[in-house]
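Postdoc handover notes: sequence design on the structure in folder B. Input tokens:
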């Protein structure tokens, strides 16, 4: 495993387990335990995923010490519109069965609400119950808006990033503030058309994968690591869960990293943070 150091001084594993669409209940507990057993020590959930209880249960059942796991959850949009972030955060802690999280994120920049939401997260951070706070789906202009009021700089910006959407200007903007970039949907997301869209069966990626005896998915994940981007692939398939973390015995050459960068098409699989209806 490789780690990044957040602006709080905390260390975060560069590869974590994303649990969007992982079921709540025993099936979810079991699959999250497979990930923990495979060596993942960072879990990315969110209140809206509806599986915080399964995440907490899996951590308990795994026997791994709480302090050895980096736990992330997120503040949902509807709370920003009509609810109370403090209450939502307390509910997340209760559902997870923990007394702190390692990272709490604003899930999406809800128009007219995200600046106040950032101030609410700062209060939570200062209470010590979130060891770090950050944002998700923030574009440069969203970061600029909160920069006018922040007394805490976000530790992380988690946004859609894969070879078809490299978001280099956003990456540079994060780096300017010392904000660590984190990619979601690093493998193109849960859409079954990812392969057909040419991400995982791209001939150039296949060639690189063959050179290292890896899969194209592993090459993409390693490309994230070599760019300094934290990533959180999701899988409920045990063999893929294990394969996705088996990327620390090789690294890409600068030319290979640049060649993968060159696959960018500015193509989103998910919603545009300036135009979402949820
Ligand atoms: P991913 O890019 O991680 O792709 C997941 C899909 O790829 C699943 O269908 C999975 O199938 C498949 N897959 C996983 N590993 C492999 C492999 N080695 N080879 C081939 N296929 C594979 O998509 P997500 O959208 O889930 O993103 C990852 C995480 O990012 C989420 O779980 C969540 O934690 C976070 N996220 C955050 C968002 C935000 O707004 N902040 C938005 C979206 C995601 P299977 O499970 O069947 O194995």
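Designed sequence:
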């Amino acid at each position: 495993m490789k780690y990044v150091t957040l602006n709080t001084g905390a260390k975060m594993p560069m590869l974590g387990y994303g649990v969007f669409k992982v079921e709540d209940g025993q099936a979810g507990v079991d699959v999250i335990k497979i990930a923990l057993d495979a060596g993942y020590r960072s879990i990315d959930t969110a209140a809206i995923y509806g599986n915080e209880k399964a995440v907490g249960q899996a951590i308990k059942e795994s026997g791994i010490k709480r302090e050895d796991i980096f736990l992330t959850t997120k503040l949902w949009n509807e709370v920003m519109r009509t609810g109370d972030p403090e209450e939502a955060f307390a509910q997340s802690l209760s559902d997870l069965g923990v007394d702190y999280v390692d990272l709490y994120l604003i899930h999406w920049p809800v128009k007219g609400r995200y600046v106040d939401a950032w101030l609410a997260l700062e209060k939570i951070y200062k209470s010590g119950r979130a060891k770090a706070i950050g944002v998700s789906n923030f574009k440069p202009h969203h970061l600029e808006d909160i920069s006018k009021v922040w007394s805490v700089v976000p530790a992380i910006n988690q946004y859609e990033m894969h070879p078809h959407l490299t978001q280099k200007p956003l990456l540079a903007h994060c780096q300017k503030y010392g904000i660590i970039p984190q990619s979601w949907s690093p493998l193109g997301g849960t859409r079954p058309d990812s392969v057909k869209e040419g991400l995982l069966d791209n001939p150039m990626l296949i060639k690189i994968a063959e050179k290292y005896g890896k899969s194209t998915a592993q090459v993409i994940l390693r490309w994230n690591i070599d760019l300094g981007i934290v990533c959180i692939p999701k899988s409920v398939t045990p063999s893929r869960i294990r394969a996705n973390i088996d990327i620390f015995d090789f690294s890409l050459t600068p030319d290979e990293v640049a060649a993968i960068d060159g696959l960018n098409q500015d193509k989103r699989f998910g919603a545009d943070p300036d135009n979402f209806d949820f």
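Context for whoever picks this up: Residues 26-38 form the longest helix (13 residues). Don't rerun without checking with the PI first.
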